[in-house]
Amino acid sequence: MKMMSVIAVTPKEGAVDEITSLIVQSREDGIEGLNVYSIVHTREEQLLVINEWNSIDAFMDYVNGPHNMIELIEHLCIRLDEENVCKAYSGAIIHQENIQL
Fold this sequence. Notes:
The protein is an alpha+beta fold. The chain contains four helices and five strands, in the order E-H-E-E-H-H-E-H-E.
């Protein structure tokens, strides 16, 4: 069963592009078990990183592994919602859409 995880951070002023770039670069060569991820800039000036994983095991391997995104970006954030890092939402994907540009 697929699994979703959501991480919410509040970037320091002017750090949105740098955070986005660091996340994208860190995942350039792929991460085992990570199918799709999205980075969303909210109206509340937060960044949400939404990840779709193959399984809870893939998510846990990532959290405990060397690619952990939080350590990479925490110096660029005002507030890091550590509770969100630990929340994992497991269940069927009800709707997913890939838009072709």
